[in-house]
Amino acid sequence: MATGQPTEPAVSRSHAPLFVRKAGAGPPVVLVHGGLPARHAWARQQELAARWSLMIPSRRGFSPSPPAPRQDFLVDAEDMAALVAGIPGGAHFVGFSYGGLGMCVAAGLQPSRVRSLTLIEVPLWSAAGADESVRRLAEVADRFAEGHRDAPTEREFLAVAGLDRQCLDTRDDDMRQAIELARNFRSPGEASPRFGRIVEAGIPVLVVSGGHTPAIEVVCDAVAARTGAQRICVTGAGHAVQRAPGFNPMLEAFLTAAEHRASHL
């Protein structure tokens, strides 16, 4: 079994260094977490280090990376672009939830550095903005981030985000930090990735959902249609799809096919 390597920085062009946990050997795979800290989000993906070089950044604001006043996918995109620029031949990108927004923006800016792109329940509302259920879910997320604390808003947002009430009272410092950041973020509605450049570059794309919220399924369907992606639903873990049984073999099959394709170009 591959062992973890020390945390080391990936230089960002306009910010203090971002910390990245590295483990394993093989083709490089960058795993970007969402609202949950990286160690929680990707706990079940550690077994992939036996065959892949995993690079797991803690997004800005999440310890041990530098603090930030809020989550901002544009800042994340800059960090991801800087990270992948230092990897020979680029890397496979795997983005979960809010973390996938910056990853998708970065892929559109530097498609030649992306071997493949996996998007797990990424809130790309703009891809399906005409759908009423999507608009409703986007409004709930924005209301929560704007400080609304009414019970229905909090309950609906936490359910979709894969959190529960116990998380709000946790004594875990990382989780308390995550909850505070969940209450302050750049709206996903502002995200406008360059889907056309991703398609033109021929980047293999996988869009995955968990089958727990109809609006999320609509968004994932729309993103898949815009990117020509392989579309898969993996049930059993709610929003945290990467924890579901069967997720790792499915992801590895996609990454292996993408890696094989890249080696024959």
From TrEMBL:
Which domain of life does the UniProt lineage start with?
A: Bacteria
In terms of SUPFAM superfamilies, this protein maps to: alpha/beta-Hydrolases (SSF53474)
Pfam families on file: Abhydrolase_1
Q: Where is the AB hydrolase-1 domain?
A: 27-143
Annotated Gene Ontology MF terms? hydrolase activity
Q: Which UniProt keywords apply?
A: Hydrolase
Which InterPro entries does this entry report, sorted A to Z?
A: AB_hydrolase, AB_hydrolase_1, AB_hydrolase_fold
Q: Does the keyword Isomerase apply?
A: no
What name has this protein been given in UniProt? Alpha/beta hydrolase
What is the originating organism of this protein? Streptomyces graminearus
